[in-house]
Amino acid sequence: MNIQDSIIFFMEILGTIAFAASGAMVGIRKRMDIFGICVLGVVTAVGGGMTRDVILGKLPSALEKPVYVGVSVATALAIFVLLYIKHDLLSGRLGTFYDKAMLVMDSIGLGIFTSLGVMSGIDNGYPDNTFLLVFIGMLTGVGGGLMRDMMAGEEPYIFVKHIYACASLVGALGCVEIYREWGRLPAVFIGAFIVMAIRFLAAHYRWNLPHPKSTS
User: Is 24 domain-assigned?
Assistant: First the structure.
């Protein structure tokens, strides 16, 4: 494994940990048991990538390389143990911990997996198909979180929380263009940074897409 592949693998693991942690947090808030928490962590971390791979007509990488599922389970268990011991983290004055943790973990996972999704489309022979690359990047980024929320009976995060899917869209477009100008690593890093920057700015300044006015 060369240095570039090692960096990409490290980012995959970081994104997996971030998304698995966000899935576990949702499971804990929904008072699921330890199995449900682990399942939600795994689905959040690998669900988008597995859907992407099916669309691209290849065996899902999460099944080829069980390390991603293993890391997801280990992360979910670690979150479970932490909050089992420090159960007051999600209550009282520390209640804001949940929202802040979800913002950070979801933003990191969204940024990394959006860029890696674009790279997967390029690696599978579609470097010139901008629409497909952006679609695959967004699907990889938001797919796991969408599955998480549906399984937990939550209103999908991507439709109601600040700028989410649109951040993935802009990051994927940036990743595609930067790849064509400067190559793989700059595209992955800058694409992920764009997504995370938009998410953090949207949360800080409370940016939201327009909603219809209430008729009640």
Answer: yes
Range of the domain at 16: 3-205
Mean pLDDT calculated for residue range 156-171: 82
What is d(CA 41, CA 68) in angstroms, rounded to the nearest whole number? 11
Extract the tokens encoding 171: 């990051």
Residue 211 covered by a domain: no
User: Which runs of consecutive H residues, i.e. helices, occur in the chain?
Assistant: 3-29, 34-55, 61-64, 67-85, 96-123, 130-151, 157-160, 165-182, 184-205
Q: What is the pLDDT of residues 34-60, one digit of tens each?
A: 999 999 999 999 999 999 999 999 999
Q: Which of 99-108, 152-161, 191-200 has the highest mean pLDDT?
A: 191-200
Instruction: Please name the residue that has the structure tokens 């143990």.
Output: 81
Rounded Cα distance, 29 and 97, in Å: 12
Query: Is residue 157 a part of any domain in this protein?
Result: yes
Going by the DSSP 8-state scheme, the letter that residue 93 receives in this structure is G
Whether 212 maps to a domain, the answer reads: no
Burial (Cβ within 10 Å: 0-12, 13-18, ≥19) of residue 13: middle
CB-based burial label for 116 (10 Å; 0-12, 13-18, 19+): buried
Average pLDDT, the chain: 89
Contact at 8 Å (CB) between 187 and 178? Answer: yes
Residue 147 CB neighbours (<10 A): 20
